[in-house]
Amino acid sequence: MQWWNSFVEWASSDAGWRIVSGAVVPFVAIVLAGVIAALIGRAAMRRVVAMHEDEAKATAVAGIVSAARKAAIWSSLGPEERAYADHLAQESEVRLRLLPVSGAGTAASWAEHEIAELKRNSASFSYESGHALDELRDRLVEWQNKPGRAKKLFKADLERWSYEEADVDKGLDARQKAWDAEQAATASHESRPTRSAQPAQSTQPAAPAYEQWRAPVSPSTRPADEPTPARETRTTAVVTSSSDDDTDVDPDTTSYGQQVSAQDVRRRTTPDA
């Protein structure tokens, strides 16, 4: 306590008071002013940064909501409008991911999945699509106001969707394998009768052309007879008549229906001639 009493005595003296009032008090005041100014500047800077972040979040959320509205009527858009909607959705998603906010990447992944679902369901715009659009808007606004709480909800939804998609992929793989096996079995079943139905090829060499010409031809496969020339017809008629003369049968009866010459006809009709 002696040193404190000595300090009080020194500060009460004229020399001590001049030092305290001329050096110590201004120094303490400057330090306090600097600290207070730093705190005020920090608070102002944080407010400006927060306002900028809020503006960036609002812009990103507005872009995502606009892209979701375009996705809800995706089937009725033209090629140019679809290209613009895709560009808007991708740009908004990138802005959302780059935000220095907790859960920005999770929110961007969740919004991307919701926009894809809206595109798939855009062919039949109904209450469900409108409800999904309203839910996307409300959830993103809630995330903008309370990022920590909304981050947990987004993460839970993403985990649930990944689990459901894994089950769907497993079912699709199983059905694809079953279909491939069925197609392979059907193809093998159809190829067996085709192979057995093929005729056995003859191992004997083909006969030459002149031997085939000399071989006898069956009546069913024999080509149609060509017309007999007149000379051969007369010769046939004479031979038939001579053979009939050797027999006792009436030549008129035998030669009925056979071809005869005009001279024979006159001789038979006019025997006195």
Plain-language structure description:
The chain is 77% helix and 0% strand. The protein starts with a helix and ends with a helix. Residues 199-203, 217-226, 228-249 and 251-255 have low confidence and may be disordered. The longest helix is centred in the N-terminal third of the chain and has 59 residues, at 14-72. The radius of gyration is 57 Å and the shape is rod-shaped. The protein has 273 residues and is mostly helical. The protein has a domain at 29-161.
Summarize the model shown:
The protein is mostly helical. The protein has helices spanning 2-12, 14-72, 79-97, 104-120, 127-145, 147-197, 209-214, 230-245, 251-254, 262-269. Helix 2 (14-72) packs antiparallel against helix 5 and helix 4 crosses helix 6.
List the topology elements.
Elements: H1 2-12, H2 14-72, H3 79-97, H4 104-120, H5 127-145, H6 147-197, H7 209-214, H8 230-245, H9 251-254, H10 262-269
Name its key features.
single chain, 77% helix, rod-shaped, 0% strand, mainly alpha, 273 residues
Number of strands: 0
Spell the H/E element sequence.
Answer: HHHHHHHHHH
Mass-distribution shape: rod-shaped
Helix content: over 70%
Residue-averaged pLDDT: 73
Sketch the major β-sheet. none
| Structural classification | mainly alpha
Task: Enumerate the spans where pLDDT stays under 50 for 5 or more consecutive residues.
Answer: 199-203, 217-226, 228-249, 251-255
